[in-house]
Amino acid sequence: MWSEHCSYKSSRVHLKRLPTRSKLVLQGPGENAGIIDIGDGWACAFKIESHNHPSFIEPFQGATTGVGGILRDIFTMGARPVAVMDSLRFGPIRVGAGDSPAQAVQAAGLRPGRTAEAAIATQAGPTQSEIHKNHSILEGVVSGVASYGNCFGVPNLGGETKFESCYSGNPLVNAFALGLVRKNEIFYAKAAGEGIR
């Protein structure tokens, strides 16, 4: 799915390699949400979106508008949202947290080995300022994701949260929504008829 302000433009080449056509795919890329036939006249609509930078600038509102956007895209296909999930990445939120030695070696672009790991071990960890900022972002994002879904009565069925130093200053906030729709009640973002452009 494409969203001008949320897409990973560098990932387009990789996403194009994924299959998007089959007898069960009712709507692939190009609409508000993807739709898959699940049988007995029913289909599921789904959407995933990243709101990384908005969530760094204003964590609560960035996360709520991310969830709101994907719920909107499910609604606009004629589906009823039934679930939200998320995948979140933040910088460390406590002293001593963050990268394992192997992750730190990889992030530093060094080859694994005693010399590289010793060099990483002597580096300073996150500052109190970084920890405070990361914790503030975490609290705002988690509250934002929960708030918007709760307003609509859509449960957050699950997700994952990870902490690594590379996400200090650039969290990843990915949200997913799933909805159900009767196949004969799907709406599309196009108009037809006299006088319609």
Number of helices: 6
> Shape from CA axes?
elongated
Order of helices and strands: HEEEHHEHHHEE
Point out poorly predicted stretches: 116-122
**Share of β-strand residues:** 15-25%
Give the CA-CA distance, first to last residue.
23 Å
Q: Roughly what is the average pLDDT, rounded to an integer?
A: 83
Estimate percent helicity.
25-40%
Radius of gyration: 20 Å
Task: From the structure above, extract its key features.
197 residues, 6-stranded mixed beta sheet, 6 strands, 24% strand
Question: What's this entry about, in short?
Answer:
With 197 residues, the protein is α+β, with helices and mostly antiparallel strands. It has helices spanning 12-15, 52-57, 59-75, 101-107, 114-121, 128-152; strands spanning 25-27, 34-39, 42-50, 80-90, 156-163, 172-182.
How is this structure best described in words?
With 197 residues, the protein is α+β, with helices and mostly antiparallel strands. The protein is built from six helices and six strands; from the N terminus they run αβββααβαααββ. Helix 4 packs across helix 5. The longest helix has 25 residues.
Blueprint (SSEs and pairs):
Blueprint: H1 12-15, E1 25-27, E2 34-39, E3 42-50, H2 52-57, H3 59-75, E4 80-90, H4 101-107, H5 114-121, H6 128-152, E5 156-163, E6 172-182
Helix pairs in contact: 3-6, 4-5
